[in-house]
Amino acid sequence: MAKKKIYLSCPTMHGEEQEFIQEAFDTNWVAPLGPNVNAFEKEIADYVGISHASALSAGTAAIHLALKILGITQGDIVFVPTLTFSASCNPVIYEQATPVFVDSERDTWNMDPEALKRAFEKYPDVKAVIVVHLYGTPAKLDEIMEICSAHHVPVIEDAAESLGSIYKGKHTGTFGEIGIYSFNGNKIITTSGGGMLVAEKEEYTKKATFLATQARDAARHYQHSSIGYNYRMSNIVAGIGRGQLLHLEEHKAIKKDIYRQYGEAFKDIPEITLNPLNQDGDANCWLTCMTIAPGCGVTPNQVMDVLEEENIESRPIWKPMHLQPVFEEYDFITVNGSKKENGELASVAEDIFDRGLCLPSDIKNTPEDMELIIKTVRKCFGK
Ligand SMILES: *Cc1c(COP(=O)(O)O)cnc(C)c1O
Known about the structure:
Mean pLDDT: 97
Strand order of the largest sheet: 1-9-8-5-4-2-3-14-15
Distance between the termini: 27 Å
Shape: globular
Bound molecules: pyridoxal-5'-phosphate
Number of strands: 16
Order of helices and strands: HHEHEHEHEHEEEEEHHHEEEHEEEHHEH
Strand content: 5-15%
Number of helices: 13
Low-confidence stretches: none
Largest sheet: 9 strands, mixed
Oligomer: single chain
């Protein structure tokens, strides 16, 4: 018999989603506008405690529009953490702007404020900074926000992975000029695909919605003074989101418990360290990750192979952007210097990538599934 598949992170539906969709069908709101879209925007804004939101087709679209709204254009420099998913920085390229990658620190795996300071020294005319909260762990926002505001440079918070994560009492995604969330299939809540742009300034979310609906001027005839996009969320998709949002806190509680269980299960194996959670925060624990101590003879690939034999899904840590062939030409800054001046640099991000992997963190995994995952990982370390 084929072994049951154990997932990394996949959608968990509850039933209410279907009711919101049914309502959309019943009222024939099957379009990229409608009551679910407006309600979902308000509900997300209320949940994270921000004034305004614009519902979009993807988190990537939200990052793209955030850059447009902040006026990022050809040749502008934008700082992006190197340790992230490519969607954090692809939109910088869409606008023909120039990403400069910044190394991680070890306390949260996110953008290192010290490396960020060096980046500002080298590129004082930077136009925006994208901050990511990787795997749900909040970045060192106090330090980062202080550095960026001292330079009067706006922050875009890529909170695609951290919806529901708190930093010093406030939701991630609400610290920057603009925040973005993703509802892709594997995120903590999903709409199958979708995103949200949030801001305190209503002009930003209005502009996002305007650009996302083909940038049509206020005129009866079809008049356009700027280039638009087809980036709006549909009313069906928003219905799924409204149903999911009712269960976000529950998802977070289970994800946090998964992290706790792994911590407990591996505490006698000094070679294993879980991904850090920011002491000043309350992470949503979207994915639990682990790193393996150097020189112990076990590699992430070995662990992933052994898990795969049991039909257990795991995956590598995001491969740093400065190591991607497509971003080869761009600079990379660490606390020790810059790639363009110093050549290849040892980095925290690369070390995490080399030694890390993501463990199954699906909230539907049963106690038996968890037991099998844990047993399989332990076996790799001779336990
Ligand atoms: C998922 C993700 C995105 C992109 O979101 P989509 O909704 O898939 O476009 C952006 N940044 C990070 C860090 C992500 O994990």
